[in-house]
Amino acid sequence: AQSVAQPEDQVNVAEGNPLTVKCTYSVSGNPYLFWYVQYPNRGLQFLLKYITGDNLVKGSYGFEAEFNKSQTSFHLKKPSALVSDSALYFCAVSPSHAGRRALTFGSGTRLQVQP
Amino acid sequence: GAGVSQSPRYKVAKRGQDVALRCDPISGHVSLFWYQQALGQGPEFLTYFQNEAQLDKSGLPSDRFFAERPEGSVSTLKIQRTQQEDSAVYLCASSPGTETYNSPLHFGNGTRLTVT
Question: Which residue has the higher pLDDT, B32 or A43?
Answer without folding.
Answer: B32
